[in-house]
Amino acid sequence: MDIVTLLIAWLVTSVSLFIISKLPTGVEIDSFQKAIISAAVFGILNALVGPILSVLAFPLTFLTFGLFAIVLNGIIFGLAAWLVTGFRLRWGFWSALIGAFALSVINSLIYKLLGTIT
User: 101 is in which domain, residue-wise?
Assistant: First the structure.
């Protein structure tokens, strides 16, 4: 992954988080600057904690045909909200779960509009 691809992914995730904060998902982000910081923290957590959780939760993920991966993303989403000031989850874990699902959908739509695959 080169630096341009990484910056595009960071920007797309930041825009997605900001859009999610404007939807009735229970996710609150104070400003676009907080969305940029939140996207960076989410990406770092996804890179560091994601593989560990995936390995530990593999049996559950296998039994649920991959649906438990959404719960894992919700856990990482909630951890990012806990770490970043100005990024709040109004309904706790449910907001994290909805936010993680919405993030994947909105990211996919933005990448489809951009015509890039990362």
Answer: 3-114
